Amino acid sequence: MNHVFELEGVDYQLWLSRWQQGYRLHFGDEVLASLDLSHQGDGCGLLTVAGASEPVRFAVDGDTIHLHIRGRTRVLRYRDPLSAHALVKKDAGLLVARAPMPGVVVQTSVSAGDQISAGTALMVIESMKLESVIRSPQDGVVDRIHFNEGESFEHGAVLVTITEEGH
């Protein structure tokens, strides 16, 4: 599963894949290490990275994770990977919803010309048997739907183009 975390103002896109009894942590095309978190209750756990274990304390407040490890506290902000990747400014007044992973369009929820609000579901996509909703991060007007229901797309493909209001 793909995840995006912000740490000290920098976004890190990480990928977790199942491996033996835990996970493997990927950064880009590189496997960094095996990873496992054993939750021990009350905000405590044991984090094992590449076979080395460290006790950790953590608190989750919405999308913010406070993590205390090795005597230092770090604040991570979880960013929805679909929102973090999907909407990128293209030109002044235009946004494009990009595919965060290869897949197929299951359902289109809007049409060209529709006025939309922040959070509006634009379409439902399926990748590796997992359905995800692509949502608008802001108000605007749907300019173009690039893929029809049932059509497949590659990672990074433009799915929907949105015009900002007033443009």
TrEMBL record:
Q: What class of enzyme is it?
A: ligase
User: Do you know which CDD domains this protein is assigned to?
Assistant: biotinyl_domain (cd06850)
Lipoyl-binding domain: residues covered: 89-163
Gene3D superfamilies from the UniProt entry: 2.40.50.100
Could you list this entry's UniProt keywords, alphabetically sorted.
Biotin, Ligase
Among the Pfam families in the record, one is: Biotin_lipoyl
Q: What is its EC number?
A: 6.4.1.4
GO MF terms, alphabetically ordered: methylcrotonoyl-CoA carboxylase activity
Report the protein name in the record: 3-methylcrotonyl-CoA carboxylase alpha subunit
Q: Which organism is it from?
A: Sinorhizobium kostiense
